[in-house]
Each structure stands twice: as structure tokens, then as C-alpha cells.
Design goal:
The complex is a heterodimer of chains A (about 400) and B (about 350). Chain A contains nine helices and 18 strands. Chain A has about 400 residues and is of the alpha+beta class. The model of chain B is unreliable at about 190-195 (pLDDT under 50). The chains are: A alpha+beta (about 400), B alpha/beta (about 350).
Chain lengths: ~400, ~350
């Protein structure tokens, strides 16, 4: 064979661009080098391959790489008509990390203003039912040593009333962790009043009194909504005041808010609910055949489309549609969550009233998941700890703070 | 799962041959390497590479960082920005998922446009379509490689126009690091800040400067002359690129412009024809303006710049009888003393 042809074939081989499949750390890898176009070229060895944990045999790179890296490999080859001349073709092999190994978990600064623990949980009674709540800092915040922005508050109130509130602070707001804490504490505090609860109860008795006229019924309903409106207005004012005291703007405290006020009456449970933002409140009936969404979700075309309790513009004429008064004989679960749970577990808004999606969630909670973590609602001595561990589930691309409250 | 789609719309015209395209290729490989270390990006960023010369094509379809392998970037003749824009718009139409009641949409896509020259065709219509239908949808960053682009034109389609002064290898590295950091901060902010806009990483003004698209701009002469040669031995194409330089002239204080050889480069022939515009050119350059010689990148013939009476440029072993790989005519080749015009490409 002519020297020029040998030269040309070797050059062509060197120039050929191989699209090497990427490897992943700790996963078996196999890739065949395509030599079809180069019948006269033989690969003798691949240098720097040992460091990857892979081997080269019979035209195939295979094995299980240990760690992620980018490897510059030298393919040592010769032309069959010029066996003594070993030449080199350079290729790159990418070994992907397991994303789970890349996330850091940096503690948040204990000395910073508005310090908040990275996780929190609660279990207790809620009317004649029980409640468990877990709130956990998301991976995105853990990775940078930032704070958990979510918060929650649960209180047993006078006259057998109960309240649970959940808030999701906006990551872009500098003091959102304080906004979410203040929002939940303030709303619960507002209802910790004999007087206010009596006013609500009187109106409820009218609303559910068979003898009441349509007008009386709707007046009672309006009265309740007015009290609820007072409560959220107070949250807004408190946040505004806190912002001023700390030389912040109220937008620095941006946080969503959902809450549920519940009492068992002779005719059934009355549930008052409110929501601003993209955190759902869902009520599941006793035989799990129906799920209702008890609040309006603020979801935009992009995820930036949400709203916060810190926005004055929510106090408009559509405000009353944010309040809901529900009465049921019984229910199996009442669930409140932030989008850190909702995004990975439900993905889209339409799934929130789909019983199949909810069954999957409860199967997941029962241990049907990759990590085999479960929250046991029957033997529930440690349910708060269990729910906290469960809520650390892995979901690609979803690493927001997670708060989940379940009344059962 | 929501994806953050990133489109690299890369000018792959002939003037990009050699170092710029190698650096872009290397740069994209570096971007990928860095993003692979970042958990946000690894989980959310999807990348597509689209090239435009006379024609445009998708070099790498939108895919995640996990499976992305840096492509070989081809070269074509011409700089049809409109073809490039049309291609990226078609991709956005096809690829991007929008949020609905039943479906979780993607994050707002980001388009990085890299170009080193002025379009060789009219991009008005494509820009009009862009602005009517796509403006505000993707975040667009136009990066001018060198000063030879039309800032006003780039400013009419991008939120940000940046000028990259490509002086050395190190600035390319810094520059692609900036692109990587911009992608990283954006993928972080999408997960956490609920913001829509792109977070451009702090710009190192020495390497990259923000350009005012309204600024008065004087276009310098072409910075490059590119010749299209064919190897006599292998009949394969190569490009010879010459870079503008100035020499002292006999008149004091006056400099003479000439073009100094930058290098001769092999190109992927099939891709070159596919990506080149059909536009017939009669661009000429006088041989006296070109300085420097090199050997053929394919066969190592010592002379890469020989020209036949048909106008074709090819390589040559030396003086004597030889055959032109373009027209097939055999003739005696000798060294020319005087200046004459030869064909150049669109660049």
C-alpha cells in the first residue's frame, strides 16, 4: 500500500468524531467503538483508561466507573500495513456524577438574623382527629447554606377550635423565612380569641340552621368571610410593621399562606379555609372516593406567577373567593402542603383533585417508594420523625423546601 | 420535571475556521464539563447546538447534560443569520413545553447567539418573526466575537449584546467560564427565586463588554480572507484563512494593508456543501495582498496555494506538470512573478 494512502487513512481515523456515550459513576458502562469505516486501522490500547475503572477489550470499553470525571483518553492505534508506527487519537470520556452525590448540605448560620432550624415537625391532636406536620429545608437551600423558607403553626384554640397554617417564603426575598414564620404565627394568634371564635360560631349556627332564610344564610356566610378577611388583613399589617421595624421592605418578607380552621359540630366538621399562593389544601372523603381542593391556587404560565400574602393587590374584590366554608360528616384526610411536595408528587394542577394521584401519594407514604421510608398512621408514636425522613425523598429537578401537614 | 432549555446558535461561517471554531468547540465541552459538576444544572439544563453559515442546521438536538457529548462543529460558506434564527424558532416551537392545567411547562429558554460577522443576506423578515412571536419568550444574549458585527442588528433581537474581544486562548477560557456561570446562576434562580429573567453572571469587562446597540458603528474592512482549496492527492477540501495586518509602507506614517496567513484547515466536506449558501460569488483578492505559505493539510504537499486557469485553488508538490483537482486539466505549473486576482469565499 502506498505511503500516502496509509498516511491518509490514519489522518482520517484521527479526525473521525466519535460520539461516545456518557458513563455514570457507579453504573455499568459498555460502549463499542465503531471501526467499520476503518478496516485497516487496529486499536492497540487505550491509555488513561485504567484511572476510569474501565477496560478495553475486543473493540469495547466496559466496566463500572467509580467517580465522576472527564477523562482524556489516548487511543493507541496502528495501520495494518505499517504496524510499527503507533499513533494516537484523542477522545474524551465523560463520567457523570450521581446528582445525589453533588448536593452539599451546609448548615445555615446560627448567628444570622431570623435564624430558623433546618427542619421542624409536630404531632398532636386536632379536634377528635390527629395531626402530623413535617417541614424540611430543600436541597437547593442546603447546597448554599441558606435557610428553610417554609414554616407552619398548629394550635388548639378555645371552644374546641383548631388551626393549622402553612407558609412558603419566596426564595428571592431576603427575609422570607421570617415572613413565613410571622404569617403562620400571626394568623393562629388572631384566632386564639374566645370573642372571635364565638362570633364565627354564632354565624355557623345560622348558616347550618335549617330554619334560616336564604338571606339569613348568606348574611351569616358573609359575616364569617368578613372575620376571615380581618384575620388576613392583620397578617398583612403585621408583616408591614415587621418590615418597617427591621428597615426592610414588605416584599423582603414575601410568603404564601394557607390555613385551615376546623371544629366538630353536632352536624359535622366545619372547615374554614384560605389560600394565597400555590400551596393546596385538600380534603379526602372517608372512603377515599372523592378529593376536594379547598382553596384557589395562584399558578402562572411560568412558576414566577404565584402570589404572596405580602401583596396589597390581593386585597381586591376577588378576595372573598379565596375563603371557603366547608361542612362534611367526616373525612379520612385533610392535607396542606407547600409546592416542594406538590411539584414532585402531583406535578400539575389537575392532579390535585384526582383520587388516583392521592392514592399514589398515600401508598408512597406507606413505604412504596425507592427509599422504603414510611409514615405509619396506625402505629403513630413516631409519625412526626417518620414523615420528616420520608419528606427527604429524591426527585430530579425538585429541591424546594417541603412542608406537609396531614390531619387524619 | 421542568427543563431549562439552552440554545447555542453558533455562526459557523468560514471566517470562524481554525482557532475560533476550535475554541467554541472546546468552550462547549468545557461548559458541559462544568455543568456536570453542578447539581442544579445536571438536573435541569438541556442544551441544543445550532449552527448557521449559508444554511443552518441542528448540530445537537435538545438533550440533557447527562447524555450530552460535545459535537464536532462543521463550517459552511456564508453568514445567513436569518436561516439561523428560523432554525432556532422552529426548534423552540417544536421543543418547548408550555404550562397548562394538565402539563408542567419548561422554564423560559435561553438563546446564546455567537457571531463574528455581518450577515450575508437580509435578516429583516426573520427578525420580524422573532420580534412578533418570540420576543420576550426566550432570554436572548447575542455575543459578538470581535468588532465586525452589526450591534444594532443584534440589539434588535437580543436583550443583551456583548462584545467578546478574542485575543488569546485564555480569554476564550474566561469567556466560556462566564457563559457557564450565567447558565448555572440561571438554573439556580429558576429553582429558588421564582424569577423569570436570566441572571447574567458578573461580566469581566476586560474580556466581555456590554455594547450599546444604538451606538454609532463604523464597519472596518473584512478582517479575514478565506480561500477554498482542494487537495490534489485526496481531492478533499481545505480552507486557507488569512488575517488582516498592516505593514510599514514606503510613505512615512502610512501603513499598507495585507493579509497574513492564519492557517490551512481540513473541513468536513459534506457538511460544508450542505451548509453553504447557493449564492454565487465573484469575490476576488489580489495575490499580492496575501502573505505566507503553508503545506496542504490533507496530503502534506508543500504548496497549498496553487491556482489553475479554471480559478480553482489546490495544493501542489512543486514546479512541473500537474493535474487540477477541480477541472481535471493537466498543465505545467510554475511560480508567478506578478500579481493576479484569485477567488475568495463569502467568509
Amino acid at each position: 500500500m502506498e505511503q500516502a494512502a496509509i498516511y491518509r487513512e490514519k489522518e482520517e481515523f484521527k479526525d473521525a468524531h466519535w460520539l461516545l456515550k456518557n458513563a455514570s459513576a457507579k453504573q455499568f458502562y459498555e460502549f463499542s467503538l465503531d471501526m467499520e469505516d476503518f478496516p485497516n486501522i487496529k486499536i492497540q490500547s487505550i491509555r488513561n483508561l485504567e484511572e476510569t475503572g474501565l477496560t478495553f477489550e475486543n473493540g469495547k470499553i466496559s466496566g463500572t466507573p467509580v467517580t465522576n470525571n472527564i477523562h482524556h483518553l489516548d487511543v493507541q492505534f496502528y495501520h495494518i500495513h505499517d504496524r510499527n508506527q503507533i499513533e494516537t487519537k484523542k477522545i474524551q470520556l465523560f463520567v457523570n456524577a450521581d446528582p445525589k452525590d453533588l448536593w452539599k448540605n451546609i448548615p445555615s448560620d446560627r448567628n444570622a438574623a431570623f435564624y430558623k432550624s433546618e427542619e421542624d415537625s409536630y404531632k398532636g391532636s386536632f379536634s377528635d382527629k390527629k395531626i402530623v406536620v413535617a417541614s424540611k429545608r430543600g436541597r437547593s437551600h442546603a447546597h448554599e447554606g441558606k435557610f428553610r423558607e417554609d414554616d407552619f403553626a398548629v394550635n388548639n384554640l378555645p371552644k374546641d377550635w383548631n388551626i393549622v397554617s402553612v407558609s412558603d417564603g419566596a426564595g428571592s426575598a431576603v427575609a422570607a423565612r421570617e415572613g413565613s414564620r410571622l404569617a403562620t404565627v400571626t394568623i393562629n394568634q388572631f384566632f386564639n380569641s374566645q370573642e372571635i371564635l364565638s362570633r364565627i360560631e354564632n354565624n355557623i349556627n345560622w348558616m347550618y340552621n335549617a330554619d334560616a332564610s336564604i338571606e339569613e344564610h348568606s348574611e351569616a356566610e358573609q359575616n364569617i368571610k368578613n372575620i376571615l378577611l380581618e384575620s388576613v388583613a392583620e397578617v398583612y399589617q403585621t408583616l408591614e410593621k415587621a418590615a418597617a421595624e427591621n428597615t426592610l421592605s414588605v416584599t423582603d418578607l414575601h410568603a404564601t399562606l394557607i390555613f385551615t380552621l376546623l371544629k366538630k359540630f353536632s352536624f359535622g366538621y366545619v372547615i374554614l379555609s384560605f389560600g394565597v399562593g400555590d400551596c393546596p389544601i385538600n380534603l379526602i372523603n372517608p372512603d377515599f372516593s372523592e378529593v376536594k381542593l379547598l382553596n384557589r391556587m395562584d399558578v402562572g404560565e411560568f412558576s414566577g406567577g404565584t402570589r404572596f400574602i405580602t401583596m396589597k393587590e390581593i386585597f381586591n374584590d376577588q378576595m372573598s373567593s379565596r375563603f371557603q366554608i366547608t361542612s362534611v360528616d367526616d373525612f379520612s384526610y385533610l392535607v396542606l402542603m407547600t409546592d416542594g411536595i406538590y411539584d414532585p408528587k402531583f406535578i400539575t394542577e389537575n392532579k390535585l383533585e384526582d383520587t388516583e394521584s392521592w392514592k399514589l401519594l398515600f401508598e408512597d407514604l406507606a413505604g412504596n417508594n425507592d427509599d422504603r421510608t414510611k409514615a405509619d398512621f396506625i402505629n403513630d408514636e413516631k409519625i412526626d420523625e417518620e414523615l420528616l425522613i420520608w419528606s427527604d425523598f429524591w426527585s430530579r429537578g425538585n429541591h424546594d423546601d417541603r412542608t406537609l401537614a396531614i390531619i387524619y | 420535571m421542568r427543563r431549562l432549555p439552552i440554545y447555542f446558535l453558533v455562526d459557523i461561517s468560514e471566517s470562524m475556521v481554525g482557532e475560533p471554531i476550535e475554541q467554541v468547540q472546546e468552550g462547549i465541552a468545557n461548559i458541559i464539563r462544568e455543568l456536570k459538576k453542578d447539581p442544579y444544572s445536571l438536573e435541569t439544563v438541556y442544551i441544543s447546538v445550532i449552527g448557521f453559515a449559508g444554511e443552518a442546521e441542528v448540530i445537537t438536538p435538545l438533550q440533557d447534560i447527562i447524555s450530552f457529548y460535545p459535537p464536532k462543529i462543521p463550517i459552511g460558506s456564508g453568514t445567513s443569520l436569518s436561516q439561523g434564527l428560523i432554525k432556532v424558532m422552529d426548534c423552540i416551537d417544536r421543543d418547548i413545553v408550555k404550562t397548562t392545567y394538565e402539563r408542567k411547562g419548561d422554564w423560559k429558554p435561553i438563546v446564546f447567539l455567537f457571531t463574528d460577522g455581518v450577515p450575508t443576506d437580509d435578516a429583516t423578515k426573520a427578525i420580524e418573526r422573532w420580534n412578533n412571536k418570540y420576543s420576550g419568550k426566550p432570554n436572548t444574549i447575542a455575543v459578538s466575537i470581535g468588532e465586525n458585527t452589526n450591534y444594532k442588528l443584534l440589539g434588535s433581537l437580543a436583550d443583551n449584546v456583548l462584545l467578546f474581544n478574542n485575543s488569546d486562548e485564555n480569554s476564550y477560557k474566561e469567556f466560556f467560564k462566564w457563559v457557564t456561570d450565567s447558565i448555572k446562576t440561571t438554573s439556580q434562580s429558576v429553582t429558588e427565586a421564582k424569577k423569570e429573567g436570566i441572571n447574567l453572571s458578573k461580566i469581566d469587562s476586560l474580556i466581555l463588554e456590554k455594547v450599546d446597540p444604538e451606538m454609532e458603528q463604523r464597519f472596518p474592512d473584512n478582517n479575514f480572507v478565506v480561500l477554498n482549496g482542494k487537495c490534489q492527492e485526496t481531492e478533499k477540501l481545505y480552507l486557507m484563512k488569512f488575517k488582516k495586518a498592516f505593514a510599514e509602507s514606503s510613505i512615512p506614517g502610512m501603513a499598507t494593508r495585507y493579509y497574513r496567513l492564519d492557517g490551512a484547515y481540513k473541513i468536513d466536506e459534506q457538511a460544508y456543501y450542505r451548509l453553504s449558501s447557493n449564492q454565487k460569488t465573484h469575490l476576488k483578492i489580489n495575490i499580492e495582498e496575501l502573505d505566507g505559505g503553508t503545506s496542504c493539510p490533507h496530503c502534506a504537499n508543500p504548496i497549498a496555494l496553487a491556482t489553475c486557469s479554471c480559478g480553482g485553488i489546490h495544493c501542489l508538490r512543486g514546479e512541473g506538470y500537474s493535474k487540477c483537482p477541480w477541472c481535471g486539466t493537466s498543465d505545467y505549473y510554475g511560480f508567478s512573478g506578478g500579481g493576479f486576482d484569485i477567488n475568495r469565499t463569502l467568509g
